[in-house]
Amino acid sequence: MQDWLAAQARVRRRRGVLRQAIPRTAGRAVLDLASNDYLGLAADPRLQAAGIAAVERYGTGARASRVVTGTQPVHEELEAALCALTGQPAALAFSSGYTANLGILTALGGPGTLILADEHIHASLIDAARLSRSPVGMFPHADLDTLAKLLAARTQPRAVVVIESIYSVLGDAADLAATAALCAGHDALLVVDEAHGIGVAGAGRGAVHAAGLAGAGHVAVTATLSKALGAQGGAVLGSAALREHLVNTARTFIFDTGLAPCSAAAAAEACRIIAAEPDRVAAVGRNAALLAAGCGIEQAAGAVQPVPVGPAQRAAELAARLEEAGVLAGCFRPPSVPDGISRLRLTARADLAPEQLRWATGLLRSLLSPTEAAAWATT
Ligand code: PMP
Questions:
Q1: Domains 45-276 and 278-377 share a fold
Q2: Confidence of residue 212 (pLDDT cuts 50, 70, 90)
Q3: What is the per-residue pLDDT across 74-112, written as a single tens digit (0 to 9) for each?
Q4: CA distances from 262 to 49, 54, 60, 177, 256 (A)
Q5: Is the CB of 124 under 6 A from ligand 1?
Q6: Complex ipTM, two decimals?
Q7: Closest ligand 1 atom, residue 101 Cα
Q8: 195 CA to middle of ligand 1, Å?
Q9: Cβ neighbours, 10 Å, residue 289
Q10: What is the CATH code of the structural domain delimited by 278-377?
Q11: What CATH architecture applies to the domain 45-276?
């Protein structure tokens, strides 16, 4: 095993895909364009106060599964706040967006359920589909004609279609109305991962709400509390019947310790702030436009502006050069994206000033080779 580990490490270094989990911002003045704190709420004093109050009242951990003694009033408060924000009838909090995705697809899946998924869904949904023991079909990104054919040819009694509302790697938004109508016509459930939608799209209430689909029985939403909501955790939103089914069958709900009270309270506070402060949400869009214009790219639908680079090694190199100069940029490269379409990932947080964004994009442009600059000018 040791030899294999060393060989693997060599390959990662050679291919420029080495990742490190190290503190990137501690003790340094840097401009963070890499995190997912889209609304700048993670350090908001109101979320901090809500979290601290919950720690004092309920303790630091949930102590048990939600179906044993781990459910506290703060979990119910969070679920009600999520419903109020998104217009959904019911919500169920999980310990992460990852476990929420595993929970819903494994609870709905099995040999009698066909799962059809967009090829660009997040790794957690891919893992969920695999774990579900369902027959799984992938359709080309946003290709509703192929999806329609696959749905029409299904032999299983049930079908679940899995998409994201905003794809963070490609930066585009799904056609929710058309996909939901297709699902309704084929008696399929549409599961929409709104990790990058809630807090950002539809005045912060999410793209599903904006499409008038909140509360539609054939549409369910999964969410993370760890991006725009500035906290930690995840949730499934949908009908009361779906919630009850998950409480009884979702293994990542039943066999996982409940969400920490501090995270639940902070996320509930974030839901209230998002509804009350539309300017904060609007600032994400304004900053996204500035970032895109500064990089000369088409503005992506959400907070994340993916800047195409190509080779993984070059994307990593540009990210490293930016970091040396004080800008933290994300880097999508294998295994997050297929080989050859690596990209930088710049996040348009609401709490960034226009001058900061102009400076960062100017810096990035100054690092480009003439060929890259020419290619970018024509995109
Ligand atoms: N879905 C999508 C689309 C995501 O981007 C992420 C986070 N990277 C998740 C799910 C997982 O959410 P969490 O980080 O809360 O586990």
A1: no
A2: very high
A3: 999 999 999 999 999 999 999 999 999 999 999 999 999
A4: 10, 5, 7, 36, 17
A5: yes
A6: 0.99
A7: 10
A8: 6
A9: 14
A10: 3.90.1150.10
A11: 3-Layer(aba) Sandwich (3.40)
